[in-house]
Design brief:
Glycosyltransferase; globular; two-stranded antiparallel sheet
Length: about 425
């Protein structure tokens, strides 16, 4: 923990008895930090259980509820085991699909031709109505991510589905089958030009794998095989036009659908091409909040990219890298104490979407996961104290977490012994100097 504090604590220099400048660290209260940001994130939640992307008062359109954003916003509550919030959010998401079930039925009967015929990505968080303006509504990954989390929660013992919900889940599976998602061009995570996106294919593969085997749900194995085959052919690219993209990180976490070689390639490419000081740019030439009129070289820096990398390296067991990125993550908090969507290139100026729920959630997850050995969060269900690595996921089994906990405990004990030895040596030197005088 001491090396982490060295990176993240506030530094004060003081004089030692030997006349040397010593460093005194002011510890960061991570438990308090997590609670503060949970309150901020909770402020985006409506009575329905859905989260808006940002504050309801913003003028950017981020007062709406996105399927994908709710998936990511809910992860922070999994981390602290607030299952009541998680269950209510997924009940609301299932109610959205029930409200628009006629549209799903139509899309299953014949592949839609126009974007308004697809399952929409955004909804009114109170009425569950669609927004009908022209938008990149065809987003296959937003369906895949919901299937993924429902399957993961159900298999972990967090019961989300009631009897009539299984009908809806099966229809979402059939929907992806009709679309032939493995080679279907969609607007992807960033809701832009339609291409075949690796990140969308990966979300669908992960979702289909997770719901396979649930009672009342049938998933043809070929649907999964075709997805993996398409990924193998497309990776490490995100699409035909994009060599590297921030969205590819989702294939490593939370979806875990890439092998060690693919993981290494994605991380190297993202860090080499997209990593900046205050965040990660989405892709080269990104026009969204680009400072340059020609949309080159001044791409906006997305804050949750840093948190995403910290989470991934913690899951991979690379503690040093995880801590390095966590130090950067703490630097994404604005003067108001909130985590924005992004910062303008090479600046400390955030955009208006602040806080961004997605960014707040990954901030909480990164802080909690990297420091889970040193934090205790009150369980909102029963008031008992719990210690947890953060959320569900196939990359974090109980056996691995126990091994890491034992390893870290030994490491901390070793550091304490070393510190004691150093202290004893300093005392001896002082005593020798006093005797000489």
């Amino acid at each position: 923990m001491w090396d982490l504090l060295f990176c993240l604590g506030k530094v004060n220099k003081v004089d030692s008895p030997l006349g040397l400048k010593m460093v005194k660290m002011k510890k960061i209260n991570y438990t308090k930090l997590v609670k503060q940001h949970l309150e901020i994130l909770g402020g985006l939640r409506f009575k329905s259980g859905l989260f808006s992307a940002s504050k309801p008062t913003v003028s950017t359109g981020y007062d709406k509820a996105w399927l994908r954003d709710n998936f990511y916003e809910c992860i922070a509550f999994e981390v602290v085991q607030d299952w009541k919030t998680v269950e209510e959010t997924y009940r609301a998401l299932l109610d959205i699909f029930k409200k628009h079930e006629f549209k799903i039925d139509y899309a299953i009967s014949q592949k839609p031709e126009y974007t308004h015929q697809f399952i929409h990505a955004r909804y009114n968080p109170e009425t569950f109505e669609e927004f009908w303006e022209e938008w990149g509504n065809k987003q296959n990954d937003s369906i895949g991510c919901i299937l993924f989390k429902i399957g993961e929660l159900e298999k972990a013992g967090v019961k989300i589905l009631k009897d009539d919900d299984r009908r809806i889940v099966q229809k979402l599976v059939d929907y992806l089958s009709t679309l032939e998602y493995w080679h279907d061009a969609d607007s992807g995570m960033w809701e832009e030009a339609q291409e075949v996106h690796a990140s969308s294919i990966g979300a669908c593969v992960a979702g289909l794998e997770m719901v396979k085997g649930l009672d009342g749900i049938e998933v043809n194995e070929d649907l999964i095989k075709k997805g993996y085959a398409a990924l193998a052919k497309l990776l490490p690219r995100e699409s035909e036009k994009k060599f590297v993209d921030l969205a590819l990180l989702s294939l490593i976490w939370p979806y875990d659908v890439v092998n060690a070689r693919q993981t290494k390639e994605i991380l190297e490419n993202v860090e080499y091409h997209l990593l900046k000081k205050k965040g990660v740019i989405r892709y080269k030439g990104d026009a969204y909040y680009n400072k340059n009129l020609d949309n080159f070289s001044e791409e906006a820096e997305w804050t949750f990219g840093l948190a995403w990398l910290a989470i991934i390296y913690e899951k991979l067991g690379k503690e040093k890298k995880a801590k390095e990125f966590l130090a950067k993550v703490l630097g994404t908090v604005s003067k108001s104490g909130e985590v924005p969507e992004l910062y303008y290139s090479n600046s400390n100026k955030p955009n208006e979407n602040m806080p961004l729920g997605w960014s707040e959630s990954l901030f909480i997850t990164a802080v909690y996961n990297v420091n889970h050995m040193h934090m205790r969060i009150k369980d909102s269900q029963g008031g008992s104290e719990v210690r947890k690595s953060g959320g569900l996921g196939r990359t974090g089994s109980t056996r691995i977490e126990k091994y890491k906990e034992t390893k870290n405990r030994v490491k901390r004990a070793t550091k304490k012994v070393k510190k004691k030895v150093i202290k004893e040596k300093i005392v001896k030197k002082i005593q020798k100097k006093v005797k000489k005088k």
